[in-house]
Write a structure and sequence with these properties.
Elements lengths: L3 H13 L2 H8 L3 H15 L4 E3 L4 E3 L1 H28 L4 E7 L8 H11 L3 E7 L2 H9 L5 E6 L7 E8 L1 E6 L19 E5 L5 H13 L5 E6 L2 H9 L5 E4 L10 E5 L7 E7 L6 H12 L1
Parallel strand pairs: 3-4, 3-5, 8-9
Antiparallel strand pairs: 1-2, 5-12, 6-12, 7-10, 7-11
Helix pairs in contact: 1-2, 1-3, 1-4
């Protein structure tokens, strides 16, 4: 059976591809290192290195063992991290990304409940668009993200938290503001304020579908990455827009919301995380959020 000392010596030599440098890095002399590598090769029954006077190279068996060894040492580091997290129970830091509009829907409730359930936990909050959150999760710069969905990415885990329909918003001073209902065709020739495609591609696609279904080509005059700016532009009379209906909870000053008749499009807020970097503490937090 391979022991960790054999594997550690192999991994250092596989990285350095030089017996002298590897031995120095391991704080041993070359003969013991050579003996350990020979023992490992005899144990496995295959050559791991090609040795000559000029260089040391990995065989195909050695390349395979190096790749698998990296996984083993990564899992060992994660195991140690999880043990430490168990020791401190609910102490630690969780890095959370979120799209701005989440603050006006489910996130506030989730955050309050997390603070109550994990009183010693430190939260680092970052307002980021979808793309930045996905990148942060892949690079282990974030632990959890709250994004505009739906989203389908093979390397990340995604859960729907909240769904919403869409509404038309116009200025409270608009000539149609006093009507009980309006249709999208009533505004077809008016300026349209668009939410940035880069910030939330699924949201942008759903709004495009709404216009396509109505056979309307919107007259886009401005694009913004912030719902607060979008609503203010509409409030000031620069144009109308289409937004998730649940935004009315946070952005209802100076604008009027109207349901879109027969609208089948939905938008959603989802929680996203990278299972590759999960810890026991993070598992507990994710389970708590899903139970909410």
């Amino acid at each position: 059976m391979i022991d960790l000392r054999h594997l550690k010596y192999f991994m250092v030599l596989a990285e350095e591809l030089h017996f002298g440098r590897a031995a120095e890095k391991l704080f041993i002399s070359q003969p013991p290192l050579s003996r350990q590598i020979k023992q490992l090769e005899e144990l496995l029954g295959v050559p791991l290195f090609i040795r000559n006077n000029k260089k040391v190279e990995l065989t195909r068996f050695g390349s395979f063992l190096k790749a698998e060894g990296e996984k083993i040492f990564t899992e060992m580091l994660q195991l140690e991290k999880n043990i430490q997290l168990m020791k401190v129970n609910d102490e630690g830091t969780v890095r959370i990304g979120y799209v701005g509009a989440v603050m006006f829907s489910v996130f506030k409730s989730i955050f309050v409940q997390l603070k109550s359930a994990f009183p010693k936990l430190q939260f680092v909050l970052n307002e980021l668009n979808n793309e930045s959150q996905i990148d942060g999760l892949r690079r282990n710069m974030l632990d959890i993200g709250f994004i505009r969905g739906p989203l389908d990415v093979n390397d990340l885990s995604y859960y729907t938290i909240e769904q919403s329909s869409f509404s038309i918003i116009i200025s409270a001073n608009h000539e149609l503001a006093n009507k009980e209902s309006i249709a999208l065709c009533d505004l077809a020739t008016e300026p349209f304020i668009q939410f940035s495609k880069i910030c939330a591609p699924p949201l942008h696609k759903s709004i495009d579908n709404i216009f396509t279904n109505e056979n309307i080509e919107p007259l886009v005059v401005h694009e913004t990455s912030q719902f607060s700016a979008l609503v203010r532009l509409v409030e000031s009379g620069f144009g109308y827009s289409i937004v998730p209906t649940n935004l009315e909870q946070g952005f209802d000053i100076g604008v009027k919301y109207f349901d879109i008749p027969n609208c089948k499009e939905k938008t959603e807020i989802g929680m996203i995380h990278n299972s590759k970097y999960k810890t026991m503490l993070l598992d507990n937090i994710i389970d708590r959020i899903r139970s909410m």
